[in-house]
Every structure is written in C-alpha cells, then in structure tokens.
Amino acid sequence: MRMRFLAVLGILIVAVALTARWIPGWYWTLRTDNPVRRGARLAAKEGCLSCHAPKGSQEFANPGSRWGTVPSFFRGNAMMYMKSPEEVAYFIAEGHAKSAAPSPSGNPNPPFHMKAFKGRLSSKQIQHLAAFVLAADGYLVPSEGPVAKGFELSLKFGCESCHGVGGSGGGPNPKSFTGTVPGWIGPDFLDLTRTRKEFGEWVMDGRCTRLKQNRAASFFLDRATLQMPSFRGTFAEQDIDNLWAYLLWLRSKGVPSETGHESR
User: Nearest Cα to 203, choosing from 225, 176, 231?
Assistant: First the structure.
C-alpha cells in the first residue's frame, strides 16, 4: 500500500512539474478572458479573417454584392450593413442583414456569399463573434470628443496591435509575467495602472515609477520580449488625456457583453 501511495505521489509530482510552466498562463487567460477575446479566437478558428480583411489589408472585390467588396471587420464598415448592434449577431447567424438592399448591379449571385453560422455555432459563440466585430469596427465609439480622439490615436500608433482589439488583451508576450500583453479592460490593467498619472508614465516613459522601483516587477518587465515603447516627444499631455478618456470609456461601457447589452 505504501509503495502504491509513493508511486502515485511520484506521478503527481512529475505531472505538476511538467505543467507548472503553463499554469500561470492558463490562470491569467481565464482571469482576463472576455467576449471580445473569445470572439477574436473564434474569428481566427472559423476562418472569418480569410475574407473579412484584418486592419491594414485591402478589401477585395465581390462584384454584384451590396457594396461591391467583401467588408473588413475593421473600422467603419459595419454601419453600411447593419442598422444597430443587435443586427450584427443576426447577420452572423443568418448570413445576411435583416433588411438587405437589392444588389446595385442587379446580379443576385456575387462570387462570395456570407455563410450562416446558426447551427454551426452556439448562440453564445455568435454573441462573442458579434462582440469582436463591434469592437474591431469601433461601432460604438463616439464620433467626436476626447474618447473619439483617443480612439483615433490608438489606431494611428498601433496600440491595439499589442493590447488587443478594443483593449481586450491577449497578444502573446513571451517571458513576461503573464505570458501576454495586458489588455485595457481586464483586471490586470488595475494591477499595472492605478491612476491617470501612472498611465501617463507608462505612455511617456514605457513604465510607471511604482513598478520601476519594484525589483520583482522590473525583473519580469525587463525580460519580456515585447516592451512598452516610450512616446515622450511624440505625445502631448492632451494626447494622454484623450487616450485615458478612451480607456476609461472602454472599461465603463465600450465593450458589449454576452447578452448584447453594454458591460459595466
């Protein structure tokens, strides 16, 4: 009996040792997961981005379709196809808008057809995809004011390339503490940035003073593959204010929840 116990214990120790390196990453993924990140993973898994061009890629032609191209998910196209955020999920589920306009060319059979995902994906997965599409498009972002200006700055300087669409996080960052680049809407943001002053230090100097003075934090920040750049000399204080307004907006109500309402 004792030998059996020791054998089982030995197996457990080996199993823990083999998986220990991945445990922190699993923990932080679960802790910071959100509908936008889940939708982004689904979009990649289901091949959505093969047709709906990522940001910076050119839309390709779809003669005879409503707008003549296959729309990108990224920045400003959703309003041409959907009249409300709720219609995004409908479009994904059914493969068409609720009130599709006739083709301007009169051709009812364009080369590319949107696939209906109802039955292929669960209703919750469709809501996750809709949350990603809305965030990628910037559909809910105000059209003017500090939030809008902060949003434009985040696009211009590629902030979301690392921090995730709509600040949802999740970009890989090998050798960092969590293994990913932190998002702006998850709990890890508050661990790293407690005040507007600290946020300004991150943007201007690439690190806030509080973490500079913490040896453990500095160890992981120094060894991380991706480092926060310094924008001192590039951004004015007003730019920092606008970016901060955009981040606060995202954290308060900018990211759709799984139910289709805005998260708070």
Answer: 231
Rg for the chain, CA atoms, rounded: 22
Interior angle at CA 178, CA 173 and CA 183, nearest 5: 75
Are residues 150 and 211 both part of a single domain?
yes
Domain holding 193: CATH number?
1.10.760.10
Rounded alpha-carbon distances, angstroms, from residue 153 to 14, 44, 158, 256 = 48, 26, 8, 22
Q: How far apart are CA 201 and CA 141, in angstroms?
A: 25
My answer on whether 208 and 108 are in the same domain is no
Distance between CA atoms of 1 and 253, rounded to whole angstroms? Answer: 58
Of 27, 20, 18, the closest CA to residue 187 belongs to 27
Tell me the pLDDT of the chain averaged across its residues. Answer: 81
Half-sphere exposure of 248 (CA within 13 A, CB side): 12
pTM of structure: 0.78
Confidence of residue 56 (pLDDT cuts 50, 70, 90): low
Q: Which amino acid is at 111?
A: P
Residue in the block written with tokens 């669960």: 122
- Choose the final residue of a domain: 80, 112, 139: 139
**What is the spatial distance between Cα 238 and Cα 258, in angstroms, rounded to a whole number?**
34
Burial classification of residue 62, based on how many CB atoms lie within 10 Å of its CB (0-12 exposed, 13-18 middle, 19 or more buried):
middle
Task: Tell me the average pLDDT across 83-104.
Answer: 77
The whole-angstrom separation of Cα 192 and Cα 144 is 29
Q: Where are the alpha helices (DSSP H) in 170-214?
A: 187-192, 196-205, 209-212
pLDDT at residue number 9: 60
